[in-house]
Amino acid sequence: MTYPALIPSTRVFTPGNTPQARQTSLSGMSDGFRRGNRRIGQSLQLRYLNLVEADFLLLKAHYLDRQGTYNIFFLSTETWNGMATPPVPLLSDYAWKYSKALVVSHASCGRFNVEVELETQPIDLSDLIIDGGLAGATPVRDYIVEGGLASATPARTYVITPGGAA
User: Fold this and answer.
1) Which pTM was predicted?
2) pLDDT of the residue at 33
3) Which residues make Cβ contacts (< 8 Å) with residue 85, sequence separation at least 6?
4) pLDDT of residue 35
């Protein structure tokens, strides 16, 4: 499921870091070792001001559908509105998940302020099909984005924007 197509009032992106370990020898020399090739700890804070109730309910329904902080999703283009090149591409080897519960405050009659905190979740690109169309049963893929008429077998872990996918 793709994140709701709402333009945030403010965005705060934290680019995270490359996984690493530092070691200090007995003589005091320090050296670092990279432990991976993808960034970890990337986060995105979104704030929506004066949302109408229908838009607030879209965010709430998405949060509940993703089972809070449990399931992943991909961001909509509206999330990065105004940026020619998003810092994390929409469809890449990163998905997103909620890092904590939504914070909702009542702004005025029928209007709501919502704060959302997201974090990236690395996924294996070999498990990802983008624009699945008529994707067959093999090889096994865990993630299908824009599923089209993708095969129902084997069972898929995530089908995002399934279209007619079984």
Assistant:
1) 0.71
2) 80
3) none
4) 76
